[in-house]
Amino acid sequence: MTDPIADFLTRIRNAVKANHKVVEAPGSKIKQEITKILLDQGYILAYKFEQNEKGHPVIRIALKYHPQTKSNAIQGLKRASRPGLRKYAGADEMPRVLNGLGIAIVSTSKGVMTDKKARQENVGGEVLCYVY
Prior knowledge:
Radius of gyration: 15 Å
Distance between the termini: 26 Å
Largest sheet: 5 strands, antiparallel
Number of helices: 3
Number of strands: 8
Structural class: alpha+beta
Helix content: 25-40%
């Protein structure tokens, strides 16, 4: 697999479209940080980081749905930087997703954070994905 983050985002996107309650994906530190941001921003209910029977890390994510309309909190999930074309942004040119309604997840020298927090801390980095 050449792009494990894209695979992770695709698993979440497919689970959202299929109206699944829980999605399971292979784990890593950067995927765990992306999942923490999704939880903090209110896009998912909960997550659990554990080991499978072979000892490999696994992330289980409980997806969030609106009680009345049954619509998902994640409407769109798009990979920005990819192995063939990396996308970097400075603190002053950080992308805004849906004019501030969505978030961009950025990998900076101070860790993985949202675009808003990167602007506050005045750091740039690699734009990993857009969530709205």
